[in-house]
TrEMBL record:
It comes from Algivirga pacifica. Transmembrane segments: none annotated. Keywords: 4Fe-4S, Iron, Iron-sulfur, Metal-binding, Molybdenum, Oxidoreductase. NCBIfam families: Fdhalpha-like (TIGR01701). Its cofactor is Mo-bis(molybdopterin guanine dinucleotide); [4Fe-4S] cluster. This is FdhF/YdeP family oxidoreductase. Belongs to the prokaryotic molybdopterin-containing oxidoreductase family.
Length: 751
């Protein structure tokens, strides 16, 4: 019996995260996937200088690395998933038709092992079959060149791609003639990029690790680091020891933020662990702007008697828009705002007191703020608070959008962007002697729409699992099926391979742990973490098949096959990745002396204006903004649904069927509800319900979800991503960033 046919079990969530249970969960998974000797080889190099950068999240490594192991439970799971011994080669694809594979769930698909050779499925065929690499590139090149316009091709990127592959990719795509470079950022931190770029002049965070240890208050908003950035808990524990107060703002009591047992310390493993959050505010979904406004109203009130509560000098010399914000807040009512949040006045005032009495504040956030219609407003409001306090551009203070994929930030730095800056395009033009396209390309939402309307004809994905990651699953499936060619560069089988265009290609690639050998010898790649540190990653495992090709090589061969007359010798570049880095060096700001810096040191910090108090905005100042609270109106029988990650998944990759930290075992099709909401609807624990959303005249439904009574604000519910994605309409997205609003979908729940 496969694991997912076991009966759902619901237990009381644990009191603390990590500890011994985390270690045993990770060891058991890695042992099953590859055995201990291989696991030991990888893990002893994981996140060490000169070692393998963890393919999990983008949390940075501390300067001093623990020899006991510098990784977390979910890093080990990421390794087990990527470097598993099992293989899904040609015999596997002969055994199962695509229709049969479509009946399997995502967990099963991932368990079938590493892809081993290129596969193709042509119109009318039921099964994928092998194709030689040469033939695959010919097919790709001829399909791209046959398009009426380069804008009919779409080139997606997921954030595990290295700097080297990403740079070559965007160069090729623009030489081919389009800016259609949607990426996973579009569904992730795009809202942060837009908000921070506008207000502070850089679309990235401003803090470094050491700032955590100098901060007085750390706000953690809309983020669940215990699961998604586990080593952040170690940093928070250390910050606390240095005196920081930690405030969490989240609809759910996420256990990792409550209590943490550090697996890297014996006292953490065996003792009670550290109580992390000092003030836990269980806010209603999408009411963060209301809370921040309420706080700022009080801070301004206090400042009338105690002016040093605000950083008046900073506000006067470095910012624009303070008076307008003050005027705006003066028309709002504190009590009405607090009421919206669902929080007690006492808790809100406690936070006001903390913020009034301290000046070094770091604000961290992730998807709980970025995936709403007013997501850009959320983040701009966080910036407003930091600006009032002068908490930016100084030690121990600033913005910390915690990035998701391990190199998603680097991919953007390398130029993966559907709306590239003029500066980047000018530089590409002068460095490579061609005129890049100047019109904006498609983001993820626009790309889906274009494919649906048969305007996007070739879809190429450098990593990722586009179909289940995207909103509106059935619409997106239709969009992909409308393509003439879909191509996926992947390490593992996933659902996107099974919903293909008239022709579908799977190009199997090396993962982070695999050794890259090229003509000049063994190679390493580079990545950028969430705090803007660029460093190396050396794969060291013998690839599971000799027919795997590295991502830079796949991109180079696609480019050579498509643009035989280009003035770039693509194949020469991939013989030695330092040649690609030389091109990056002369094109991308901050990479001067790239190879040299890497030879001397393992990593270096990229320039960051906001970190230094220099704001490269349109007016060279930090900008206060006026932002909108949520405009969502719920009907009587509606709930606001957020789609979140379990502890046993990495996005669409399902590691297992448990969510230990929320007490859920053997199941993912669950909906978390407040017990009184359940009672009001006559629902009992484990009742099977249909969830539906009603937007643009359509009713979207998912069935067979089990109700779980949970500590969540009334009127709010939670489900797991990607199971609930069919409920997220394509057009429900943040209005300035196009990030799907997958944390605020209005739903109805019926037995
Ligand atoms: N193990 C593991 N690690 C991962 C990933 C993974 O899937 N698994 N994914 C990676 C990626 S790509 C990303 S982007 C990150 C995602 O990291 P997170 O953003 O931590 O992931 P989510 O599960 O989406 O969690 C969102 C959190 O926001 C809260 N939230 C939802 N709506 C609101 C709201 O309106 N206001 C507030 N204040 N809070 C809200 C939820 O309760 C939840 O705790 O993690 C990365 N790391
Ligand atoms: N409802 C809802 N939807 C969401 C979210 C949400 O919170 N709620 N979160 C959104 C977010 S934040 C993100 S980032 C996106 C994620 O969207 P994606 O990045 O597209 O999805 P992943 O699940 O991370 O992609 C996993 C696949 O990547 C491939 N892969 C793994 N490693 C490598 C590698 O090294 N190279 C290559 N070429 N391929 C590799 C494997 O084949 C695997 O199946 O989903 C978004 N969708
Ligand atoms: S915190 Fe993130 S990067 Fe670090 S080991 Fe865990 S999953 Fe990997
Ligand atoms: Mo993400």
């Amino acid at each position: 019996m496969s694991e997912h046919h076991k009966k759902l079990k619901i237990k009381t969530p644990p009191h603390a995260a990590a500890g011994l249970k985390g270690v045993t969960a990770a060891v058991s998974m890695v042992n099953k996937a590859m055995g201990i000797p291989k696991a030991f080889k990888i893990l002893s190099h994981l996140n060490q200088k000169d070692g393998i950068d963890c393919p999990g999240c983008a949390w940075p490594d501390p300067e001093k690395r623990s020899k006991l192991g510098e990784f977390c439970e979910n890093g080990v799971k990421a390794i087990a998933e990527e470097a598993m011994d099992k293989k899904a080669g040609a015999p596997f694809f002969t055994q199962y038709s695509v229709d049969e594979l479509l009946q399997k769930d995502d967990y099963w698909l991932g368990q079938q092992g590493r892809l081993t050779q290129p596969m193709v499925i042509r119109q009318g065929q039921t099964h994928y079959e092998p194709i030689a690499w040469e033939e695959a590139f010919e097919l790709l090149g001829s399909s791209l060149n046959a398009l009426p316009s380069p804008d009919d091709a779409i080139f997606y990127t997921s954030g595990r791609t290295s700097n080297e592959a990403a740079f070559l990719y965007q160069l090729f795509v623009r030489m081919f003639g389009t800016n259609n470079l949607p990426d996973c950022s579009n569904m992730c931190h795009e809202s942060s990029g837009v908000a921070l770029g506008h207000t502070l002049g850089i679309g990235k965070g401003s803090v470094l690790m050491e700032d955590f240890y100098k901060a007085e208050v750390i706000l953690i908003m809309g983020q669940n680091p215990g699961t998604n950035h586990p080593r952040m808990l170690t940093a928070l524990e250390k910050a606390k020891k240095h005196g920081a107060k930690i405030v969490t703002i989240n609809p759910l009591k996420e256990v990792g933020l409550v209590q943490f047992k550090n697996p890297q310390s014996p006292s953490g493993m065996l003792g009670k662990g550290t109580h992390l959050t000092d003030l836990y505010l269980q806010i209603r979904i999408n009411e963060d702007v209301a809370l921040l406004k309420a706080i700022m109203i009080k801070l301004l009130e206090i400042a009338e008697d105690k002016p040093d509560v605000l950083d008046e000098h900073f506000i006067e010399t470095q910012t624009i828009g303070f008076q307008a914000l003050k005027e705006h807040l003066s028309h709002l009512d504190f009590n009405t705002l607090v009421e919206r949040t669902g929080l007690s006045e006492k808790d809100v005032l406690e936070l006001v007191r903390l913020l009034a009495n301290h000046n070094k504040i770091i604000a961290c956030w992730a998807m709980g703020l970025t995936q709403h219609v007013n997501a850009v407003d959320n983040i701009q409001e966080v910036v407003n608070l930091l600006l009032l306090k002068g908490s930016i551009g100084k030690e121990g203070a600033g913005t910390c959008p915690v990035r998701g994929h391990s190199n998603v930030q680097g991919d953007r730095t390398m130029g993966i962007h559907e709306r590239p800056s003029k500066a980047l395009l000018d530089k590409l033009a002068s460095s490579f002697g061609f005129e890049p396209p100047r019109e904006a390309g498609y983001n993820v939402v626009e790309a889906i729409e274009a494919m649906y309307k048969e305007k996007g004809k070739v879809f190429f994905a450098l990593g990722g699992n586009f179909l289940p990651a995207a909103p509106d699953t059935h619409y997106t499936a239709e969009a992909l099926r409308n393509c003439s060619l879909t191509v996926h560069v992947s390490t593992k089988l996933n659902r996107s391979h099974l919903v293909h265009g008239k022709v579908g290609l799977i190009l199997p690639t090396l993962g982070r742990t695999d050794r890259h050998i090229q003509k000049s010898g063994e190679q390493f790649v580079t990545v950028e973490n969430s705090m803007g540190i660029v460093h190396t990653s050396h794969g060291m495992i013998r690839p599971s098949s000799k027919d795997l090709m590295s991502e830079p090589e796949i991109v180079a061969r696609m480019a050579a096959a498509t643009l035989p007359n280009s003035n770039i010798n693509w194949l020469y570049l991939i013989e030695d990745y330092s040649r690609i880095r030389e091109l990056i060096e002369k094109t991308i700001a901050g990479f001067e002396g790239y190879n040299e810096k890497l030879n001397k040191n393992h990593g270096f910090e990229l320039p960051n204006g906001a970190r230094k108090g220099i704001f490269n905005t349109h007016n060279q100042k930090a900008n206060f903004t006026i932002n909108r609270t949520s405009s969502i109106e719920l009907e009587q029988d509606e709930f606001l649904m957020m789609t979140i990650r379990s502890h046993d998944q990495f996005n669409t990759t399902i590691y297992g069927m448990d969510d230990r930290y929320r007490g859920i075992f053997n199941g993912r099709k669950v909906i978390f509800m407040h017990p009184e909401d359940m009672a009001a609807k006559g629902l009992k624990q484990e009742d099977r319900v249909t969830i539906s959303s009603r937007y643009d005249g359509l009713i979207r439904k998912v069935e067979g979800f089990k109700v779980v009574s949970y500590d969540i604000p009334r009127g709010c519910v939670a489900t797991y991503f990607p199971e609930a994605n069919p409920l997220v309409p394509l057009h429900l997205h943040a209005d300035r960033s196009h990030t799907p609003a997958s944390k605020s979908v209005k739903v109805k729940i019926e037995l």
